[in-house]
Amino acid sequence: MFNWGSVFKGSAIDEKTTTLKPDQVGIQVLPVGANGAGAHRGIWSGTVSSKSQNQQAAWTVIQWLSSKEGESWHAANLGVFPARKSTLA
Asked: Tens of pLDDT along the chain (89 residues)?
């Protein structure tokens, strides 16, 4: 599975969020050929299904998750790297 290094803590080593042990998860950088290892940085996407019975509640959660407050919570509690420059500052 390709994933971001910023989710390693929450998915592999934080006992509050996973039952996996560090020796059960490996990390390998993406290969790019003779130039060396590659890096991958992307974004998370939030969507609300048109079939959802709770569209407004789902939208409210997405707004909070993508807010500065939500990103700060993620960074502090799950080790997730924030996307906003303002959150990093």
From this structure: 555 666 666 667 778 877 887 788 777 766 677 776 665 555 566 788 889 999 999 999 989 988 999 989 988 887 777 777 888 88
Segment (H or E) for 17? none
Q: Which residues pair with 30 in a beta bridge?
A: 38
Degrees, nearest 5: CA angle 39-42-44: 150
What is the Cα–Cα distance from 9 to 21, expressed in whole angstroms? Answer: 11
Residue 44 near residue 80 (C-beta atoms within 8 A): no
Helix (H) or strand (E) holding 76: helix 68-78
Please give the model's pTM, rounded to 2 decimal places. 0.51
Q: Is 36 left (phi over 0), alpha (psi -120 to 50) or beta?
A: left
Return the structure tokens found at 18: 């996973």
> Which residues, 6 or more positions from 81, have their beta carbon under 8 angstroms from its beta carbon?
4, 5, 6, 75
